[in-house]
From TrEMBL, chain B:
InterPro entries: 2Fe-2S-bd_N (IPR042204), 2Fe-2S_ferredoxin-like_sf (IPR036010). GO terms for molecular function: iron-sulfur cluster binding; oxidoreductase activity. It comes from the Bacteria. Transmembrane segments: none annotated. Keywords: Oxidoreductase. This is Proline dehydrogenase.
Length: 465, 100
């Protein structure tokens, strides 16, 4: 072989950057392929350059880690060891004899096809937010919590002036504090989890004092800014005609039912809502990588971060939701494994012992966190029949219930064929968890051939093989 | 405090785009969605079934709720497409159709 071994890293968030840096430092040529115009992914998303932010760190946590990653990648780019393809949206990774073809769409209009060929692939495609439906959730002004944060970090814009942040999970804290710091009035933080559930998982959580301190810091910020926090409360309904005007929140009893008489209305123009995260697994599924048995939503990897498809590694949220620190550890391990394997040597796990210890600790921590922040029991029963569940195809909860009930559908695919839920633009990414919850069907892989819409001209232009 | 002040942003001079014929100020670096939010616009699509208004939902290109017509091209994700001087942005009705 005359050319250096070459890995394509898909995704320039924490996992992809750590993997790219680690592999490049060990003599592997890296092509970093990412849809954004700057590296960082969602966690390190920064204001667009043209906005000239002198203090981009104002909306961030762990900025120094980002600076180290960025400077490292920049050095490798300058030395020709990493090529960074920005604004490249990968729609499929194909296995060819002994190599891989990474197909992307270039540019903001995503209409021009580009193919990168590599000896190995690291999938670091991250995750996206899960939002469970409720009456009114399709009203303009209702946004995902992560979406509100992304628009704020990237475009320096606020969705409105008076915001309610609601749902469940650790993301709600930085979203509420970020919106507050940027000038929005956060009328309430509505968290469905019971603080006592966190206590039940105290041993696992206490093993990560840094993470707990982070949570406490956010909680302190909210107190300081007099943001009202309502635990064991949910948004029952969002009201408005053409846009959001008011939300009704109510307290939950221990059994997940609404405490009678607890409903109250909070005027707001924005509801930032989220119920945890899901891994992006489209590319892995198309490649034939096995997803984990536990819930079927994350890419299964071994101790080296290898998937069960030879030549394909995965790291970060795509292997299970666990935050940026876990993504960095996994990316680092993947990068070392890739370098060794591509150089034809056996990797030495002792060389990544510290990262492996962090990985174990953080996975345990997030398993406990996930249990504590599970969506409240009974959310699906509370959905009215006329609530839209599939936002793209406007399929209601009633139609989905009928499909699973009298029509006998027993899996998401059959529900889709009977109702069109999951057949629209987003291909079920938004509604699949809700359809699964409503029908009792397991949340299975979407088996989408393409990770995003592809113009027919690009498909037609691919060479035959 | 506003987000631009918080990040001590020094954006270039604002330029003009139109939304349904109405002139709006936009900043280089913003997406179409960010420009519309700045102008207080939160809905720019009506669904093809119920004709219901929609705007940004996921904000990161996953959900397709924010589809909009830009310079005659329908079905553009407003949260991904950068706004450019002189852009003609129109509310997308139903499935949307390109002008040309």
């Amino acid at each position: 072989m005359t050319e250096r071994a070459h890995v394509a890293v898909v995704g320039a968030g924490p996992a992809g950057l750590a993997g790219a840096l680690t592999a490049a430092a060990r003599g592997v040529r890296v092509t970093l392929v990412d849809g954004a115009d700057q590296a960082g992914g969602q966690f390190y998303r920064q204001p667009a350059r043209a906005l000239g932010a002198r203090r981009p760190e104002a909306l961030h946590h762990q900025w120094h880690t980002w600076e180290r990653l960025r400077d490292g990648v920049d050095r490798h780019i300058a030395a020709g060891r990493i090529s960074h393809l920005t604004d490249h949206h990968v729609w499929c990774v194909q296995r060819e004899s002994g190599s891989f073809a990474v197909h992307a769409l270039r540019g903001p209009a995503q209409e021009e096809g580009v193919t990168v060929r590599a000896d190995a692939v690291l999938l670091a495609t991250g995750g996206y937010e899960r939002v469970l439906p409720f009456p009114g959730w399709t009203l303009p002004g209702v946004v995902t919590a992560g979406g509100a944060q992304a628009m704020l970090k990237g475009g320096l814009v606020l969705p409105g002036g008076r915001v309610v942040v609601a749902g469940t999970g650790p993301l709600l804290l930085p979203v509420a504090t970020g919106l507050d710091a940027a000038g929005a009035r956060v009328a309430a933080l509505v968290e469905s989890a019971d603080p006592r559930a966190l206590l039940r998982h105290a041993p696992a959580l206490a093993a990560e004092p840094g993470k707990l301190a982070e949570g406490a810091w956010y909680a302190g910020q909210l107190l300081r800014h007099k943001v009202r926090t309502l635990s064991r409360h949910i948004v029952v309904e969002a009201h408005g005609t053409d846009r959001l005007k008011v939300v009704t929140v109510a307290a939950l009893r221990k059994d997940g039912r609404i405490r009678p008489g607890s409903a109250r209305r909070i005027p707001c123009d924005t509801l930032a809502v989220g119920h945890g995260m899901l891994p992006h697994t489209d590319l892995a599924e198309t490649l034939g990588c096995t997803l984990s048995e536990a819930d079927g939503t994350a890419v299964r990897v071994d101790d080296e971060q290898r998937t069960d498809v030879s030549g394909v590694w995965a790291a970060g949220e795509t292997t299970g939701i666990g935050g940026a620190a876990l993504a960095l550890a996994e990316g680092h391990i993947a990068g070392r494994s890739i370098a060794a394997r591509l150089h034809g040597t056996a990797p030495d796990p002792r060389s990544w012992a510290a990262a492996a210890r962090a990985r174990t600790r953080l996975r345990t921590f997030f398993t406990a966190l996930e249990a504590a922040y599970a969506p409240p029991a009974g959310w699906a029963e509370r959905l009215t029949d006329d609530t839209v569940v599939c936002r793209c195809e406007e399929v209601t909860a009633g139609a989905v219930r009928t499909a699973a009930g009298s029509l006998g559908a027993g899996d998401l695919r059959t529900v889709k064929l009977l109702t069109r839920a999951g057949m629209g633009w987003c291909q079920g990414r938004m509604c699949a968890p809700a359809v699964a919850g409503l029908t009792g069907c397991p949340l299975t892989a979407g088996r989408r051939p393409f990770a995003r819409p592809v113009p027919l001209g690009v498909l037609a232009g691919l060479p035959d093989d | 405090m506003n987000p631009l002040e918080l990040a001590q942003a020094g954006p270039g001079e604002a330029f003009t785009v139109t939304f349904d014929g109405r002139p709006l100020a936009a900043l280089s670096g913003q997406t179409v969605a960010a420009a519309l939010w700045t102008a207080g616009v939160t809905a720019w699509r009506s669904t093809r079934g119920g004709g219901r208004p929609r705007g940004v939902f996921c904000g990161i290109g996953v959900c397709f709720d924010c589809l909009v017509t830009v310079n005659g091209r329908a079905n553009q994700r407003a949260c991904l497409v950068p706004v450019r001087p002189g852009d003609v942005i129109r509310t997308q009705e139903g499935p949307g159709q390109d002008d040309d």
